[in-house]
Amino acid sequence: MFEIRGKTAVVTGSGRGIGRDIAVQLARLGARVVVNVKKRQEDGKETLNMVLGYSDGILVQADVSRRDGARTLVRETLDAFGQVHILVNNAGLGIGAPFLDADDALIDKMVSTNLMSAVYCSQEFARVMQPGGCIVMMASMAGVRPMSMLSLYGISKAAVIKLAEYLALELAPKRIRVNAVAPSVVRTKMGESLIEFLGLDDEEYGMKHTLTGRMITVEEVTDAVLFLIRSESITGHTLMIDSGQALMSELSLARLGAGQE
Ligand SMILES: NC(=O)c1ccc[n+]([C@@H]2O[C@H](COP(=O)([O-])OP(=O)(O)OC[C@H]3O[C@@H](n4cnc5c(N)ncnc54)[C@H](OP(=O)(O)O)[C@@H]3O)[C@@H](O)[C@H]2O)c1
């Protein structure tokens, strides 16, 4: 099993939500953690304080949807800790919109934040990562099964899943494993917009849209990420965590999006 204690881990987009929980749990397990935000320094400082309660860490403000942001993150990581073993490409943006209404600015923002951030960070970090290290991509169930109003988000997350497979092949000679996690809706700032759009509370969402009757939690997503980091025999895999939602029909949501219900 891959030992997290004593390693250096970078979690992009860890100012709040899923990224924050991953960063804090990695610190709890003894990793030095690099917290990253795009602009909300206060969120980043809060996460860093939680990290410092367990281990060492730094905060890096950098827009990882741009090449220079990814380079800044690598440089500050190496300046602080000298090496890197774990990268979690978590930064993401979930804006729902009908495909026909999406303008170029929205298309560019969705692709750069959800896909190019993972491309730039994987490339820049894999060049300096220790052998035996690993990368985990934060994908989405929307990248596996189409969800209403999420075409741009879904296609960028589908590409992230393929990126994990391609990099698992290409980085294997460097002894770097690459995997992805694909969660369904989680109650974070991002997840809340979809839940509010549907007008459901968590219990109703669980009953209507899952096989298990319950929405997944941030902690369950973190557990999936930690599992993939520790499992040295798993690479090129996407672990879906969705309470069985991907097996259910999207028809009612599609009708809702089209104003037919
Ligand atoms: N919540 C869900 O239902 C759900 C479901 C499936 C997958 N996911 C995926 O899980 C990941 C985390 O989602 P979340 O729900 O925790 O989101 P969230 O609550 O909106 O948090 C997103 C974090 O990412 C940071 N970020 C965004 N763009 C960035 C950039 N270009 N550079 C650096 N940091 C950036 C934000 O920092 P700033 O505030 O400074 O911009 C924020 O700290 C995303 O990849 C998302 O697509 C979420």
UniProtKB/TrEMBL annotation:
<dbReference type="InterPro" id="IPR036291">
    <property type="entry name" value="NAD(P)-bd_dom_sf"/>
</dbReference>
<dbReference type="Pfam" id="PF13561">
    <property type="entry name" value="adh_short_C2"/>
</dbReference>
<keyword id="KW-0560">Oxidoreductase</keyword>
<protein>
    <submittedName>
        <fullName>3-ketoacyl-ACP reductase</fullName>
    </submittedName>
</protein>
<comment type="similarity">
    <text>Belongs to the short-chain dehydrogenases/reductases (SDR) family.</text>
</comment>
<dbReference type="GO" id="GO:0016491">
    <property type="term" value="F:oxidoreductase activity"/>
</dbReference>
<dbReference type="InterPro" id="IPR002347">
    <property type="entry name" value="SDR_fam"/>
</dbReference>
